[in-house]
Amino acid sequence: MYIDPQWRILTVGDGDLSFSNALFRHHAPQHLTATIYDSLNTLQSKYGDDFHQQLLNRHCQVLTEFDITNPETWSTVTKHSFDLVIFQFPLVPGFTSKTEFNEKCAGIGINTLNRRLLRQFLINASEQLLDPIGPQLCYITSKDVKPYSEWNIEHSLILNTDINYLGEMNFDIVNFPGYRVRNVDRDKHVKDTKGITYVWSQRPANQLTQALSSQLTQQPILGDDCCHYCQAGPFTSDQHKQAHENSRKHLRMKDFEQQWLADLQTA
User: Fold this and answer.
1) What per-residue confidence (pLDDT) applies to 119?
2) Is the pTM of this model over 0.90?
3) Is residue 192 situated within a structural domain?
4) Is residue 194 part of a domain?
5) Which domain holds residue 103?
6) Of 50, 131, 240, 247, which one's alpha carbon is 20 to 30 angstroms from that of 107?
7) Quick one: 215 and 225 in the same domain?
8) Are residues 133 and 80 in contact, defined by beta-carbon separation less than 8 angstroms?
9) Nearest one of 171, 179, 137 to 25, comparing CA atoms
């Protein structure tokens, strides 16, 4: 993950604040505002208060009960004042009951809920939080395992927007000493799965700094002899293609994509 020390950065949903603390200590951005979705009491009961206190001791702004999908929770944030907004390993929180699950997932699946969260993050950050005269960057760091790999992060989130997908870069946790990747809703530290940081901006790729653009790669554009749902191919024969299209993985990914496109029509 590339960080320019001149950037003003906002972190979103940083569970125990360990990422924000590592970012502030080891990369020293010009300004950092760290946010968490939980209340302060919930933070303290789930994770303790160590990283929160370390940030406060370094005079870093920390906001609790910050919901990136709800601007009414942003009252103390100055809009259009950041160069980069970061969301690390986002995942819709677990449901506390079957009733809550039915309410939140009425007619849609959890895959679509997660895509909604990421799309709303990109739109809200781009339109309301990023400085229009800055680089206007959004980073999402995710994993190349289920369920994250089933969200089609690179292609599906910015349909019908003016946001540009610029590429991806490796996220190496070694560069963020003290960062603990947590399970959502649990205080356990999870295995350090390989991370990928995806990058978006309302600015086109040719306006990126060389320092950032040199870090980014994009997957090859798939042709007609490939599966765009599964990012698979090229297929060597019609039989090969048909076998793939009949596979459980393909049918699952096709269903996810169709649900998402239908959801966008109702948004």
Assistant:
1) 97
2) yes
3) yes
4) yes
5) 8-219
6) 247
7) no
8) no
9) 179
- CATH number of the domain that residue 130 is part of: 3.40.50.150
User: Confidence class of residue 131 from pLDDT cuts 50, 70 and 90?
Assistant: very high
The structural domain count of the chain equals 2
- Which pLDDT does position 188 carry in this prediction? 45
Alpha-carbon distance of 260 to 264, in angstroms, equals 6
Question: Using a CB cutoff of 8 Å and minimum separation of 24, what contacts does 54-61 make?
Answer: 54/21, 54/25, 55/17, 55/20, 55/21, 55/24, 58/24, 58/25, 60/20, 60/24, 60/32, 60/33, 60/34, 61/32, 61/33, 61/34
Peptide bond into 147 cis (omega under 30): yes
Closest alpha carbon to 138 in 28, 13, 11: 11
Question: Both tokens of residue 174?
Answer: 């070694």
Residues 114, 29 share a domain? yes
Question: Which residues neighbour 243 within 8 Å (Cβ) at sequence distance 6 or greater?
Answer: none
Shared domain for 158 and 195, answered yes or no, is yes
Residue 185 has pLDDT above 70, yes or no: no
Question: pLDDT for 11-67, tens place per residue?
Answer: 999 989 999 999 999 999 999 999 999 999 999 999 999 999 999 999 999 999 999
